[in-house]
């Protein structure tokens, strides 16, 4: 009887250890699945995120898994179905991770979307979304020191200057691109500093009217541009952008 009890006890211990080993394996496997799901849950284009970081800072971010991207423009609107205005075209659309801090939004419930131009002229408009509050992180950005000029004067125009009908500064102070036949042509525009150094380029423009935010140009002053259809130069001109930021 004594040996039978010892045998039963040993058998129970063995079964219990086997059960615990399997239990540990299941727990580890479950954790692995959770971590894997979290990793793959990160939004990739055409999905993107819009986070309200506080103090009127809307962070638009995305992960790019496309092989080749020619252009990514961030657009903003008061209404999800309304007119969208391009506020920025990124300088490196093929970057794996990218984003932009919109500090000029009229309110914290604007709608945002991305205009993505792929290879061979294909393009995608992402689904619009509104900012959500980020409760996990705190973003701290120093406020720029604003310099107020007591007297505003119009800049002197270069001799013989004639404003372009295609690229010009509108009454709101934004750079406006007017290309009524954009859908039938292959337009692209190169922007330069006043000294001729390259600034950025818009490729495969599909929109008849396109508004560029001042944040694209970093400062006020004169800027040069070259408008092309395919590789043919159509216009080489300049425009003046007031310093309003």
How would you describe this protein?
16% of the residues lie in helices and 36% in strands. With 245 residues, the protein is an alpha+beta fold. It has a four-stranded mixed sheet, with no helix packed on it. A four-stranded antiparallel sheet has the order 4-3-6-7, with no helix packed on it.
Task: Note the topology.
Elements: H1 2-40, E1 49-52, E2 58-63, E3 69-77, E4 85-89, E5 97-102, E6 111-118, E7 123-125, E8 132-133, E9 167-169, E10 175-178, E11 187-193, E12 198-205, E13 209-212, E14 221-229, E15 232-241
Parallel strand pairs: 1-8
Antiparallel strand pairs: 1-2, 2-5, 3-4, 3-6, 6-7, 9-10, 10-13, 11-12, 11-14, 14-15
């Amino acid at each position: 009887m004594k040996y039978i009890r010892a045998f039963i006890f040993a058998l129970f211990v063995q079964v219990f250890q086997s059960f615990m080993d399997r239990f540990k394996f299941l727990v580890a496997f479950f954790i692995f699945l959770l971590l894997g799901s979290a990793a793959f849950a990160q939004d990739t284009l055409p999905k993107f995120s819009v986070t309200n970081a506080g103090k009127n800072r809307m962070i638009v971010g995305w992960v790019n898994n496309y092989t080749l991207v020619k252009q990514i423009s961030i657009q903003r609107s008061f209404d999800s179905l309304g007119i969208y205005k391009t506020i920025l075209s990124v300088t490196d659309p093929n970057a794996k991770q990218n984003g932009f801090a919109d500090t000029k939004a009229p309110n914290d419930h604007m709608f945002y979307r991305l205009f993505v131009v792929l290879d061979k002229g294909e393009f995608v408009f992402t689904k619009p979304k509104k900012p959500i509050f980020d409760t996990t992180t705190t973003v701290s950005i120093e406020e720029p020191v604003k310099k107020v000029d007591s007297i505003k004067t119009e800049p002197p125009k270069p001799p013989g200057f004639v404003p372009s009908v295609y690229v010009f500064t509108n009454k709101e102070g934004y750079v406006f691109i007017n290309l009524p036949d954009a859908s039938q042509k292959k337009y692209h525009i190169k922007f330069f500093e006043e000294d001729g150094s390259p600034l950025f380029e818009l490729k495969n423009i599909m929109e008849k009217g396109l508004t560029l935010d001042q944040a694209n140009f970093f400062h006020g002053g004169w800027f040069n541009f070259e408008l092309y259809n395919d590789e043919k130069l159509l216009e080489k001109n300049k425009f003046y952008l007031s310093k309003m930021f």
